[in-house]
Design a protein that fits this description.
113 residues; HIT family, subunit A; five-stranded antiparallel beta sheet; binds zinc ion; alpha+beta; binds guanosine-5'-monophosphate
Length: 113
């Protein structure tokens, strides 16, 4: 499978990795939309949030806890977590990822446009 995030997790493509554990890898977004823009991805290929099952519920909690710890390690006092699901949700890379954005005062904009 030709998945860029799988290659980053496997160390086969370059990325600035900021966190790693048995389940997750986090690395800097190559086109940052904020001073701090980190992507947190599962180590195994999961295309979208819709591919999780109820059995993954504890995994989802682990993802949020990792996001909290990474934000703290980055010294962020406030931040935003974004999870785009599917093409209509703005997802362009089909390996599940949580965006962690911060490092300034984020605008409150959400939605279309
Ligand atoms: P999406 O639109 O799918 O929610 O977000 C995909 C994100 O992945 C974008 O913010 C984009 O900049 C980032 N991205 C795409 N390709 C690469 C890559 O090869 N390396 C890194 N570090 N980020 C990438
Ligand atoms: Zn993948």
């Amino acid at each position: 499978m030709d998945c860029i995030f799988c290659k980053i997790v496997a160390g086969e493509a370059p990325a600035r990795i900021v966190y790693r554990d048995d389940l997750l890898t986090a690395f800097q977004d190559v086109h940052p939309a904020a001073p701090v823009h980190i992507l947190i991805v599962p180590n195994r290929h999961i295309a979208t949030l819709n591919d999780l099952t109820p059995a993954d519920e504890s995994w989802s909690g682990h993802l949020l806890e990792a996001a909290r710890q990474i934000a703290a390690a980055q010294g962020l006092t406030g931040y935003r977590l974004v999870l785009n699901v599917g093409a209509d949700g703005g997802q362009s890379v089909f390996h599940l990822h949580l965006h962690l954005l911060g490092g300034g005062r984020l605008r409150s904009h959400l939605g279309l446009g």
